[in-house]
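Lecture 7 notes: from sequence to structure.
We start with the chain below.
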Amino acid sequence: MTASTLDAYLNTLAAAGGEPLRAGAAEIVRALAGAAAKIRNTINQGALGAAFAGSRGASNADGDLQRDLDVHADDVFLDAVRVAPVALYGSEELEHPVILDRGAALALAIDPLDG
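Predicted structure tokens for the same chain:
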């Protein structure tokens, strides 16, 4: 079995069959992977990073205590998919979905930090 990079796999997926949804899904995954790397860098800073400063004192949509790192991760993912073909961005950290592109065919539901 040969190893492949995520980028190479996504390029193959996007090119297969000329389906716009495949290409859109590949673009979204690529944006999410870049955002995940940024969040990893923040987490690697540990307690020295600003995102670990504390909790917000509020609850998210699931009733969990919202922490600064949760909100930071949500902001990073939301910013990343603004350039991808995403119609709606729904997050555990947000009370309502965010409309990004009414003409896009795909929506994203995410729990930004926990999966």
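Points to note: Residues 12 and 26 are 9 Å apart (CA to CA). Helices lie at 6-15, 20-44, 68-81.
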